Amino acid sequence: MAAAAHGGGGLTTLDHAAVLARAVPGADPASARVIGEGWGATAYRLGERTVRVLNPRAYAGSVEAGYAREPALHAMLAGRGIPTPANSEAILGDDGRLAAVAYDYIGGVTVGALGRAARAALARELAAMLTALHAVPVEEPRALGVPEIDLGEELYRPMVEASLPRLGPRGRTWLEQRFAAFIEGGGSRRAPRVLVHGDLACSHLLAGRAGGLAGVIDWAEARIADPAYDFAALIAECPRTFAEQVIAGYGGPASGDPDMRRRAAFYVEALPVWEVRFGVDLDGQPDPRAGARRIAARAGAEARRDRR
Hints:
CATH architecture of the largest domain: Alpha-Beta Complex
Strand content: 5-15%
Largest sheet: 6 strands, antiparallel
CATH topology of the largest domain: Aminoglycoside 3'-phosphotransferase, Chain: A, domain 2
CATH class of the largest domain: Alpha Beta
Radius of gyration: 19 Å
Number of domains: 2
Order of helices and strands: EHEEEHHEEHHHHEEEEHHHHH
Distance between the termini: 35 Å
Number of helices: 12
């Protein structure tokens, strides 16, 4: 899930101070500023380094391995010209487990701060980046331990089944029907398998004021999976015109795939399932009912359309 933009507050816990001291030797952890907060980690700027400190959900949710892979993945992708964080390293805690990932701070702004011309320039650069990303031979990320999955059966089916008991009757029926239609339409079985970012929200795209792509961050959810997953994140999380500009400029395996839009539409519709399953809103903040409310609203909107 995307990280929430943050107003730049200070340390959130004393435990984080110890991790920051280890991540940036010689720096004063008290001077750290929170620059992002998501489901699995809190991101700080300390000097000229970004330090993403894992929180307990990262361990309970089994995404620790994704964070641990990030330094090697960053290096591999940088070698292919993809703008990932530089000088990335894993920071271990006293118990030997991963405590944080640190890398050089990337200055930049997100899409919402750009004017029309700069957004168009960023869309072109992001389209080229995704074309290159989806062309990476899957043997390379596979060698780093990046998982390969059928999104429909291996990711969404377990989440849908776990979420259904937490929904009201209307929401439950809506989700059951939506998922059944997706699977009956082919699910993601026939989709190309490529390296995807896995959480390509606009908050993870940093640009210069003229629209140059300064860096793509937060690669912990990278997978070998359906390329439509990356486009779904853009459609759901970014201005729609911007997302469509990226899709129009893309030249990878999904560009000639007539089924891509169907799969992307399901991933967008199913976004509230993440909230239901993990009891947080889409910014990673605790809200056990957020997803159920969103699914009920979607079911209600569909029922009203059907009555017209």
